[in-house]
Structures are given as C-alpha cells and as structure tokens.
Write a structure and sequence with these properties.
single chain, mainly alpha, 0% strand, globular
Length: 139
C-alpha cells in the first residue's frame, strides 16, 4: 500500500473515531462529567465542567476537519495534541490503579473495552496514527 493511501486511510479512521467519541459525549454530558471526575485529577471542578462542554464539540469539529481534509495545518496538530492529552490522562489512571470508565466513547464505551489499560492502548495507537497523519499526509 502506498504511503499517501495509508495516510488517507489512517486520517479517515481517526476522523471517524473523533466524530463518534465527540457525539457520544454530546449525547450524555452528565455521564462524561462523572467519568472526568473519576480520574481524580487535581483540577477545579469548574474547569472539568468546561471540558465537559467544549471537548466533545472540539472532537466533532476536528473529526470533520480530518474527514473532509480541511485546515490540515491546524486540525492535524490539534488532533495530535488531544491524543497526547488522552494518553497522559489514561496513563496516570493506570499508574494510580484507578478502576474507571475511560469516558472515551461516552456511555456507549462501557465494559472491558473502556478499561483504562485497553483505553490507554487505544489512545496510544490513535496518537501514533495522528502523528503519522500530521507528518506524512499530503495536504
């Protein structure tokens, strides 16, 4: 498979994940907020409430931006940064031994697939793919 084709497939896959993840959080904001609280990070509750409101919209917009390949110089680094944040949040949960629903896919992501270790692996793969897309994809 050629590199441009692989980049395109990777970009589309990441876009679909971001749109679905954002949409699921938009449908269930209270559950997403509860998931954020379960990470027990030392951040003000008001900041977590802002994340609850803004992050799903940002995920959906970034996903659509990737899907239609618009504003790549902005969207691709933003997606990579979001993936890095997801990896850090999940890694600290795994290191601390927290038993939580990752919140990645809203309430639809419950079960073994949402366990912190599995979610960390997913986030790392997504992050690696986003770096690849950012660095290798033709605009």
């Amino acid at each position: 498979m050629s590199l441009p084709r692989l980049s395109t497939l990777c970009r589309i896959a990441i876009a679909v994940v971001f749109v679905i993840a954002g949409a699921m959080k938009l449908l269930h904001p209270a559950a997403f907020f509860a998931d954020l609280l379960s990470y027990r990070v030392p951040l003000p509750e008001m900041l977590l409430r802002l994340v609850t409101v803004w992050l799903p919209w940002l995920e959906v917009l970034c996903g659509f931006g990737l899907l239609v390949n618009r504003w790549p110089e902005t969207v691709r680094p933003l997606v990579t940064a979001l993936c890095a944040i997801f990896v850090v949040m999940l890694a600290q949960a795994v290191i601390r031994g927290l038993d939580l629903n990752c919140g990645c896919l809203g309430t639809g992501g419950a079960g073994w697939f949402a366990r912190p270790g599995i979610a960390l692996l997913r986030a790392a793969l997504l992050g690696g793919g986003s770096v690849y897309v950012m660095l290798r994809s033709p605009s």
